[in-house]
Amino acid sequence: MFRLLSLSVGLVGAAGLLAATLPSAEADPAASSRDCFRLSNIQSTKMQGERTLFLRSSTGAYYRMDFGADCDNISSEPLILHPVDNSDEVCSAVGLDVRVRGAGACIPTSLTRLTPDEVAAIPPQDKP
Fold this sequence. Notes:
three-stranded antiparallel sheet; 23% helix; alpha+beta; disordered N terminus; four-stranded antiparallel sheet
């Protein structure tokens, strides 16, 4: 009986410790829903150079994805975007697998939702 009681006290303590850490994980700004988008809502993409991809969502939001190395799609092959966890929602660069059809993988390093001023600064030929 004493052993069962001490085990349940330990479990309650562990659950309390876990609950104390959850709010800080949810407060992570990179994972907030306003910075996330659904891959199915992407209407257009456009590469700017070899290391930057602009995305436009059907909600009117624009995103910029930067790559750690050249993403070689000069051959005009399309980029294939696939969420790593097989969901439709993307909240960070590491949550997205980017490939060039027939070539190789591109390595996304950052994903940023653009402000209206940042969208206005994109040259017209580079807007998705």
